[in-house]
Design goal:
The complex is a heterodimer of chains A (268) and B (424). Chain A is an alpha/beta fold and 268 residues long. Chain A has 10 helices and 10 strands. Chain B contains 11 helices and 9 strands. The chains are: A alpha/beta (268), B alpha+beta (424).
C-alpha cells in the first residue's frame, strides 16, 4: 500500500519516579501520497511525539509505521523533517545547508546544483545563498529549512510547528509558500501547529487530538487548502464555513484545556 | 604613606581625564547607546573607551616614572627625591663630669649608585671635634663621633642633644637635616630625608628596564639571548598544548559519544581537573628531570583535561534537532560525526583552547621559576637572586605582553574559524 500508514501506535514514557505517562494510545491513520494533513491539539496531546515516531526518532511501544509498504525502523531520507527552530547548520552557508542531503548521498555539484539553485529561487533565497545562517532573519531561516528538506526529495515532509516562532506577517507569507510548494511538488505533508487558523488553511485533512492519553479526537476534510493555492489567504478566511469550523474547533480545544486545568486543580 | 599618595594621584588622574574627555574631546557623543547609563546583561552596549585605555596606560608609566625619578618624565613631575648634596648637624656631648661641648658633622650625600668619597674638615676646638661623613642617598650612616674627640664613649661620654634637640640612647628625633637615632652603644645613626621616590633596587625607572631589554636582546642573559629565552618558553607552551589538544579532543569526543569511555575516563578527568598543574611540578621533576621533556609533559597535563572537558561539552551540547535533521536528510552516523557534531563542538573547543593556552603560559613560567636553564621564568628567577629588579620587571612585562598576544591571536582565530559562535 503506497503512502504513510500509522497503525495503532501507542507510546508510553517511563518516568524516573517509577510511574509512566501514556503519551499516545492506539492512534491509526493513513495518508495517501500528496495529502496535506494538519494536526491540532492542546499542549500535551502527543502531537510532537506522533511526529517523532513517524520520523523514526522514537520507537513506539506499540504498533508500527509503514511507508509504501515497508516498516519504518529509524530516520530516513524518504521522510524529511522541518523543525520549529530551523535546526540549521551554522557552520555552512545557505547553499551548503540546502545541498546537505544530496551531498551526503555523495552526489556531485553537477548533479544537485540546478535543483538546489531552483529551490533557492523558489523560496526567495537566490540572493542570499552565500550568506551565513546567523545573518538571516527568522523567516528566511525557516525558508532555508524548507528548501533543505525539499532538496533531499523526500516522499513525506513532517513539519513540527515550522512557523510557530515567526511574526504574524512573515507567517502568512510562509503559509502561502507552504501551500505553493505542496501543490508544485506533490509531497505528502504532515504539519503540526498550535494555531487553529493555520491548521484550517494548511490542512486538506485536519486532525484534532485529545490529551491523556493522546488520541485522535476528530477528523475534518476541508476545502480551504485547495482554495488557498495561488490565491489570497485572507480571502480564504472569508469563505463559507471557515468561521464556523474555526469556532467549532476552538471550542473543542478550549473544553479540553478546561478539563486539563480542572484535573490539575483537583490534584492539588 | 607613599602608597596612599600614589593612590590619590591615580584617582585624581582618573577623574580629571574622564572630565576632560567627556566635556572637551568627545562632547558630540550623544547617540542612543550613550543614553544607556546602566546596562543590564547587554554587554555589547558598553564598549571600552579608547581614550580611557590610552590614558590608563600612560598614567601607569607616568606614576612609574615620577616615583622613580625617571629621565623620561619632566623634572617638575617627579615626586620629591631623596636628599642629595651637603648638609651638617651639630651634636652636644656631655662627659661623666657634666662638661658639655658641641661639634659639627659635615655630611656629603651622593646619588644612589655613586661612590661616596671620604673628605676632611677642620677639627675645630673643644672636647668634641668636627667630623666628616660621606654617604649615599636614601641610606643611613652611623657616625662614630668620638673617633677624633678628646672624650670618648668608653669614658662615659654621651650624646645628649642634636641640633639642640635632646636625645637619649635608643631614642630617635627628627630635625630639618633628617632623622637621628642613638644606637644602644651611643653612636649616632643619621638618615637624610628619603623623599617619596622608590629606590632602584625596589623599582627601577622605566628607562633602566628598557635599557635592560636592549642589552639582553643584544648580549643575552645566562648564555642565551632574550629571544632564545622567550622562544623556549613559547615552544614549551605550544608543544605542550599541541599534545594536550591532540589527545584531549579525541578523548572528549569519545567521552561525549560513548557511555563506556565516559564511565572509564570520568573519574580520572574529574579528579585531575581540579589539581593545579603547579602541584604537579615536583612530581614531574622527580620523574622527568628539569629538561624539556618534563616541561612539555607538565604543559600537556595542564591542557589535556581542559581540552577533554571542552570537547566533551561541545559534543554533549549539540542540539538534538540538528542531529535529527541530519538523520532525516539521509546522513550516516559517520557523516553526522564529521559534518554536524565536530563543527558544532568547535566553539566550545575554542573556548577551552583559550583557557588552556592561558593556563599553559602561566604554568610554564612557574615551572621555569622552579628549575630551568632557559626561559622567561628562569630569567626573572635568577635575576631576583641578584636583586636585579630591572630584569625581573622586564621579564614580568614581556610575560604579560606575550600572554596578552597569545589571547589576541586565539580570539582572532576564533572569529575567523567559528564566526557563528554566540550568534545562533
Amino acid at each position: 500500500m503506497s503512502g504513510l500508514s500509522i497503525e495503532s501506535i501507542s507510546m508510553r514514557f517511563d518516568l524516573p519516579n517509577g510511574s509512566s505517562v501514556q503519551a499516545l494510545k492506539d492512534v491509526s491513520l493513513h495518508l495517501k501520497p500528496g495529502e496535506l494533513l494538519s494536526v491540532l491539539g492542546p499542549s500535551g496531546c502527543g502531537k510532537t511525539t506522533l511526529l517523532n515516531i513517524a520520523a523514526g526518532f522514537l520507537a513506539p511501544t506499540g504498533g508500527q509505521i509503514t511507508m509504501n509498504g515497508h516498516v519504518v525502523k529509524g530516520p530516513d531520507a524518504e521522510r524529511g523533517m522541518v523543525f520549529q527552530q530551523g535546526a540549521l547548520f551554522e557552520w555552512m552557508n545557505v547553499r551548503e545547508n540546502v545541498s546537505f542531503g544530496p551531498r551526503m548521498k555523495g552526489q556531485t555539484e553537477a548533479e544537485w546544483g540546478n535543483q538546489v539553485d531552483h529551490l533557492l529561487d523558489v523560496t526567495g533565497l537566490g540572493d542570499f545563498k552565500d550568506k551565513a545562517i546567523f545573518e538571516l532573519s527568522g523567516g528566511m531561516q525557516q525558508r532555508v529549512a524548507l528548501a533543505r528538506c525539499l532538496a533531499n526529495d523526500p516522499d513525506v515532509i513532517l513539519m513540527d510547528e515550522p512557523l510557530g516562532a515567526l511574526d504574524a506577517l512573515t507567517r502568512e507569507k510562509m503559509q502561502g509558500l507552504v501551500l505553493k510548494l505542496w501543490k508544485e511538488t506533490g509531497k505528502t505533508i504532515i504539519l503540526i501547529t498550535h494555531s487553529v487558523e493555520e491548521a484550517l488553511l494548511l490542512g486538506e485533512r485536519l486532525l484534532v487530538m485529545a490529551p491523556r492519553p493522546g488520541r485522535i479526537h476528530k477528523e475534518y476534510r476541508l476545502p480551504f487548502a485547495e482554495m488557498g493555492v495561488g490565491g489570497d489567504l485572507r480571502e480564504v478566511k472569508k469563505a463559507e464555513g471557515y468561521a464556523t469550523t474555526r469556532e467549532e474547533i476552538l471550542e473543542m480545544i478550549w473544553d479540553m484545556e478546561e478539563e486539563i486545568m480542572g484535573r490539575s486543580e483537583e490534584m492539588q | 604613606m607613599i602608597g596612599l599618595m600614589i593612590l590619590l594621584v591615580y584617582v585624581a588622574i582618573f577623574v580629571i581625564s574622564f572630565l576632560i574627555v567627556r566635556f572637551v574631546v568627545q562632547r558630540t557623543n550623544t547617540d542612543f547607546t550613550s543614553l544607556k547609563t546602566v546596562t543590564f546583561g547587554d554587554e555589547s552596549a558598553v564598549i571600552s573607551n579608547r581614550f580611557a585605555s590610552v590614558v590608563s596606560v600612560l598614567t601607569i608609566f607616568l606614576l612609574w616614572g615620577s616615583f622613580t625619578g625617571s629621565a623620561w618624565v619632566p623634572g617638575f613631575l617627579h615626586a620629591p627625591g631623596p636628599f642629595v648634596g651637603e648638609t651638617s648637624f651639630t651634636y652636644t656631648v656631655a662627659t661623666q663630669d657634666g662638661e658639655r661641648d658641641d661639634a659639627t658633622v659635615h655630611v656629603r650625600v651622593v646619588d644612589f649608585g655613586e661612590k661616596p668619597e671620604k673628605f676632611d674638615v677642620p677639627l675645630g676646638d673643644g672636647l668634641a671635634k668636627d667630623d666628616a661623613l660621606a654617604m649615599s642617598a636614601s641610606r643611613s650612616a652611623t657616625v662614630l663621633f668620638d673617633k677624633n674627640d678628646e672624650v670618648t664613649r668608653k669614658e662615659g661620654t654621651r650624646v645628649v642633644a642634636i641640633d639642640g634637640v635632646p636625645i637619649a640612647p635608643g631614642g630617635s628625633i627628627r630635625t630639618d637635616a633628617g632623622r637621628f637615632a642613638l644606637t644602644s652603644k651611643g653612636a649616632i645613626s643619621f638618615s637624610p630625608p628619603k623623599g617619596l621616590q622608590m629606590e632602584p633596587i625596589w623599582l627601577p625607572p622605566p628607562e633602566a628596564v628598557v635599557g635592560r631589554v636592549i642589552e639582553i636582546a643584544n648580549e643575552g642573559y645566562r648564555d642565551s639571548t632574550l629571544w632564545k629565552h622567550l622562544g623556549y618558553s613559547l615552544f614549551r607552551v605550544i608543544a605542550g598544548f599541541f599534545f594536550g589538544a591532540l589527545i584531549g579532543i579525541p578523548l572528549g569526543y569519545a567521552m561525549g559519544l560513548s557511555d563506556w569511555f565516559r564511565g572509564w575516563f570520568e573519574p580520572i578527568v574529574e579528579f585531575m581537573r581540579p589539581v593545579p598543574p603547579l602541584a604537579l611540578i615536583p612530581l614531574v621533576i622527580i620523574w622527568f628531570g628539569i629538561g624539556e621533556v618534563g616541561k612539555i609533559i607538565l604543559l600537556f597535563l595542564a591542557s589535556l583535561w581542559i581540552m577533554a572537558i571542552s570537547a566533551r561539552a561541545g559534543v554533549s551540547g549539540v542540539n538534538i534537532s540538528k542531529v535529527h535533521a541530519a538523520y532525516s536528510l539521509g546522513a550516516s552516523k559517520l557523516q553526522i560525526m564529521r559534518h554536524v557534531i565536530m563543527p558544532n563542538s568547535l566553539p566550545e573547543i575554542f573556548t577551552g583552547a583559550r583557557v588552556a593556552m592561558g593556563v599553559c603560559w602561566g604554568t610554564v613560567v612557574a615551572a621555569e621559576l622552579v628549575a630551568a636553564s632557559e626561559g622567561a621564568g628562569m630569567m626573572i628567577m635568577v635575576a631576583s637572586k641578584f636583586q636585579l629588579t630591572d630584569i625581573v620587571l622586564m621579564g614580568i612585562i614581556l610575560i604579560g605582553v606575550i600572554g596578552f598576544g597569545i589571547d589576541v591571536l586565539m580570539r582572532r582565530a576564533e572569529n575567523w574559524l567559528v564566526p557563528w559562535k554566540g550568534r545562533s
